[in-house]
From TrEMBL:
Gene3D superfamilies: Ribonuclease Z/Hydroxyacylglutathione hydrolase-like
Pfam families: Lactamase_B_3 (PF13483)
Record keywords: Hydrolase
Protein name as catalogued: UPF0173 metal-dependent hydrolase SAMN05421761_10780
Family: Belongs to the UPF0173 family.
Record organism: Belliella pelovolcani
GO molecular function: hydrolase activity
Classification via InterPro entries: Metallo-B-lactamas, RibonucZ/Hydroxyglut_hydro, UPF0173, UPF0173_UPF0282_UlaG_hydrolase
Record has Hydrolase as a keyword: yes
Domain Metallo-beta-lactamase: 8-191
Amino acid sequence: MIEITYFGHSSFLVKIKDQSVLFDPFISPNPEASSIDVDALRADYVLLSHGHEDHVADAEKITKNSNALLISNFEVASWFANKGVEKYHPMNHGGSKALDFGKIKYVNAVHSSTLPDGSAGGHPGGFVVSHEGGCFYYAGDTALTYDMKLIGEEFKVDFAFLPIGDNFTMGIADAIKAANFVGTDKIIGMHYDTFPYIQIDLEATKKSAAEAGKELILLNIGESITL
């Protein structure tokens, strides 16, 4: 069993055993997440899918406050190292890394990746996280891609964090296909409703998922669930 807490947009804190793994922290610039005290957040690991500000905005502060290990692609990890983040680990596509709570694999994503100051952020990615109790997929920002089928062939995915906001990423129709590709019926939605470009019809989205036989989990900011 793992505990998942949602901090808005694409940011989740996942507790696996006694370890806390934070994904893509974009909290303080998000007015919808004003109830979250970023200064009080602690994590053992901070995983960044790519360099866009709406995925890395609070990474430096939280990493330094927590003495956490920051993990991302080479360009993003190096950028944070130059900002004084002392604990970092660079990865690239297809690579795996064993950690205290299990193992992560950095997998392909189809998107763009520019850091907040305009620096090149390398190629974006997602993470497949394997742990003693199971496996999940954090897609990051991505289009639907056949590479997701390789995830389904290699791993038994219990659930997937998938973007559903359309316009910049997959919408719900492609997210359903992505869930099929990786072999799960459980989707945790992300990257929707934060900005006007990614506003969605929630009821229509829920209906589409239900008709496809998928469990779509849409969390409120600050809400936690156990899976």
